[in-house]
Amino acid sequence: MDIAQLNSLSYEDFVDVLGNVVERCPLVAAAVWSGRPFASVSELEGRIHQFLDSLPESGKDGVLRCHPDLAGRELRSGTLTAESQAEQRQAGMAALAADELSRLARLNAQYKRRFGFPFVVCARLHDAAAVMRLLAARLGAERAAERERALGEVKRICGLRLIKSHLLPVCP
Amino acid sequence: MDIAQLNSLSYEDFVDVLGNVVERCPLVAAAVWSGRPFASVSELEGRIHQFLDSLPESGKDGVLRCHPDLAGRELRSGTLTAESQAEQRQAGMAALAADELSRLARLNAQYKRRFGFPFVVCARLHDAAAVMRLLAARLGAERAAERERALGEVKRICGLRLIKSHLLPVCP
């Protein structure tokens, strides 16, 4: 689908195609539809970033809380969104040894207690060991800075989902 | 569930319970969780209203676009959210005669072309004839005023969903 086709979509079809580029937040795609016509998919991506940045702090926290735990119950029970399922599998989250799994669960529980949202990371850009290192390192971060860092990961995930759905080309 | 129990929920459980009080926008419940502890469910409801009001215009449009058409395809195919399905049935949307159905579809299409979001009304407070009259009357409204009016309906729907889930008591 190219940008002309995207621009021609009704908001219903637009949300069907792009509703999960930000995990479980179809509101985001539904909101940016207002900005049509987009000159390019990169411009559309920029509008998504702008919209996320325009949310009040509680709204940014809300976006983060719509993300699942890494290697959590939902991965094991297969109830993640299709996108999250594929990304977490690719990052090796479904193949962790029992001790790694319990270490990750412990770190994530600590992280959630501290920040009030789950650890969000663009899993496809990291392997399990790197995810674990990052998570451990972030536990000492300051809340506002961590929210912005996590929102940066949401944007990275969104970019890869746009590429995956053949909307955004892979950079040369 | 009383307010003390609600206040004690993790954000995951909070979103499980309240994720659809605003149609297909779990982000809203996830965002207001930041405001705990709430003194009452009415205070929680007020926070939801505040959050909706704090969204940029495109975000308000986004919330409206997450609502289904009245008596649309999804009602017939049974793919509405459980809440919308029950509300539309109760308002008689599943029992419209063919000519009423096509009149409603025509009016709603006109409305969507004009405003860029669907006609949102607290269906449970109206019967089908009243819905049709309201919709016809709104077609001439001004866009910004109509957005706010529609957001008022979102809040009314939210209130009834809170009552339905036994969170908000029915007023005497």
UniProtKB/TrEMBL annotation, chains A, B:
The molecular function terms in GO held by this entry are: 2-oxo-4-hydroxy-4-carboxy-5-ureidoimidazoline decarboxylase activity
Enzyme Commission designation? 4.1.1.97
What keywords sit in the KW lines?
Answer: Decarboxylase, Lyase, Peroxisome, Purine metabolism
Tree of life domain: Eukaryota
Compartments annotated for it: namely: Peroxisome
The catalysed reaction is:
5-hydroxy-2-oxo-4-ureido-2,5-dihydro-1H-imidazole-5-carboxylate + H(+) = (S)-allantoin + CO2
Q: What class of enzyme is it?
A: lyase
Has keyword Flavoprotein?
no
Q: Which residues form the Oxo-4-hydroxy-4-carboxy-5-ureidoimidazoline decarboxylase domain?
A: 7-162
| Pfam families registered for this protein in UniProt | OHCU_decarbox
The pathway where this protein functions is: Purine metabolism; urate degradation; (S)-allantoin from urate: step 3/3
| GO process terms (BP) | allantoin metabolic process; purine nucleobase metabolic process; urate catabolic process
Q: Name one GO cellular component term.
A: peroxisome
Q: Signal sequence: where? A: none
Purpose? Catalyzes the stereoselective decarboxylation of 2-oxo-4-hydroxy-4-carboxy-5-ureidoimidazoline (OHCU) to (S)-allantoin.
Q: Which family does it belong to?
A: Belongs to the OHCU decarboxylase family.
Q: What is the name of the protein in this document? A: 2-oxo-4-hydroxy-4-carboxy-5-ureidoimidazoline decarboxylase
Q: Which gene encodes it?
A: urad
